[in-house]
Amino acid sequence: MRGGSQPFLMGCNDGHTYVVKFRNNPQHVRILANEMLTSHLAMLIGLPVPGRAFVEVSPNLISGNPLLKFEVAAREEQCAAGLQFGSRFPGAPSHTLVVDFLPDRLLRRVSNLASIFVGAYVLDKWTCNCDGRQVIFHRDAEQSRAEYSATLIDHGFCFNDGEWNFPDSPIRSLYPRRLVYESVRGLQSFEPYLSRIENLEAAELEEGLRDVPPEWCGDDPQQLPRLVERLYSRRRRVRQLIVDAKNSSLKPFPNWH
Ligand SMILES: Nc1ncnc2c1ncn2[C@@H]1O[C@H](COP(=O)(O)OP(=O)(O)OP(=O)(O)O)[C@@H](O)[C@H]1O
Ligand SMILES: [Mg+2]
Prior knowledge:
This protein is of the alpha+beta class. It has one domain (8-246). Helix content is 28%, strand content 18%. The protein is built from 8 helices and 9 strands. It has a 4-stranded antiparallel beta sheet with strand order 1-2-6-3. It has a 3-stranded antiparallel beta sheet with strand order 7-8-9. The radius of gyration is 19 Å and the shape is globular. The structure holds adenosine-5'-triphosphate and magnesium ion. The site of adenosine-5'-triphosphate (ATP) has 20 residues, from strand 6 and strand 8.
C-alpha cells in the first residue's frame, strides 16, 4: 500500500483482508500502539473505524515471500515476523471500491459526512494527531450509484508518533477539504463527541491498555499507562483546543461567527 509506514494488504486466516503495519516499519514501532489505542478511543465515542486485529506473521511467510520487505533510503529491510497491527479492509477487495479522496461533488453525498468529520476533529485534538485527518471512502464496486461510506484511518501519528507527548497546535489534524466543516456553527456542533470524551471514566480508557503488546511500545513500555493518564487529564481541555483552532489564522470553520 502507499504510506510512510509501507503497510501491506494481506489475506488472513479469519477470512478477512487487512492493511498490515509491521513492527519494524520505517516510521516507528509505536505507530502500532497508536493505531490500536486510538481505535479503542474512537469506538468509545462512537466513531467509525475499521475492525482491528493482531496479525501473526510466521517466519516462513517472510522467508518465502521476497515482496515482504521495506525500502529505506537505498537499502531494503525484511519485514519482521511476529505480531503486527491489522486494519480490516471494508469487504472483499475484489468487490469493494476504496478511495482516499473524493471530488467535492461526491464528498457532499457521503452519508453522515458532517458528523464523522467533526467527531474526528474532536478525537484528533484530544489525541494530538500530528498528521492531517485521513479517511477512506468505500462502496460496493458493482453499484456505481451507491453512496460512499467514510471510515477513519491512519492514527499512527496520534500522540506525536513515537514521542508520546502532546505538542498542541491549532493548525494540526485538519482535513484538506474544508467543506466537511461547513456545518460547524459553534462548540455545540462538536456534540455529542465532545461531551462523550469529557465524561469518560478512567476505567474505560484503561481497557485500551490491554490491547497493546509491550513490544509495540519501544524501549520503555512503562510509558503506556502514563500516556493513558495524560489522555484522561486532557479530556476537559479539548473544548479550549477547538476554540484555539477556530481563532487561528487558518480559519477552519467558515460558518462559526
Ligand atoms: N482499513 C483499510 N481499508 C482499506 N484501505 C486502507 C485501510 N487502512 C489503510 N488503507 C489504505 O492504505 C493506505 C496507507 O494507510 P495509512 O495511511 O494508514 O498508512 P501510513 O503509512 O500511516 O500513511 P502516512 O504516510 O500517511 O503516514 C491509505 O492511504 C489507504 O489507501
Ligand atoms: Mg496515511
